Prior knowledge:
Structural class: alpha+beta
Amino acid sequence: MNPSSDPISGPVLQPTAPLTERQSARTSPIMSRPTPPAAAVLCLAGALMLAATVSSAGATDELPYLIDTSGQPARNGSALCWRTGSWSPAAARSARFEDKPMACTCEPELVARGDCEPPPAVPPAPPPTPLAEQPMAAPAVREIVGPTKVKLSAEAHFRFGTSVLQPDTRARLDQLTDELAGIELEVVLAVGHADRIGDDRYNQEISEKRAAEVKAYLIGRGVPANRIYTEGKGEKQPVHLGDCDGLGREHRRNQPLIDCLAADRRVEIEAIGVR
């Protein structure tokens, strides 16, 4: 099995090889003869360990990384995790492995450091110092300052039924690119969204067009194209959850409802790098 390019548009953070859903769900060839009892026991044990170790919103074939029969993320010869066809930055952050996001194990640059670190343990109380002994002075601790992980965010908003950047949105993107000039950029994630007016297919397409419009503008401002990853979520992740109900039917001529849902027509931008 050889790593291949990511099937989703945009850059791949590490040279990890994506797999199709069929490949991720079937990690060994079908045998032409009945499986021996010992092999069946091993398969069952691997499945039980996988179910106990990894939890996510969907079935195993919806995990962003391939899991081997020992319940650990499968890795290639370069010790990089194999991506499945369901991989996306959002999926890598939401799927759980050992009670933390799977990205912590495979691609920690996609998540905040605090999401991957366990809560600090409370140290036990020190034993009483004998009266005859004098406490030793603690050695001086010198702080070592290294590179700092940086995460910058911005949002682009759009008029109803369009993917055209407005002047105020361009100003926000200009400010973001100015801030990127001071860091070593790793990746920019641009995720497009739509309001609920219209059918699912239309809203999915326009969310993708909005993300692509943001990518094109950032490239024009000097951001490397191979660092920008885009995707569209359609109407699946609205900002408004019920506060626009009761404003009439969902129709492109219902202006009060269109105005209320303005925040849903957006692209969320997140830039990750090192300073």
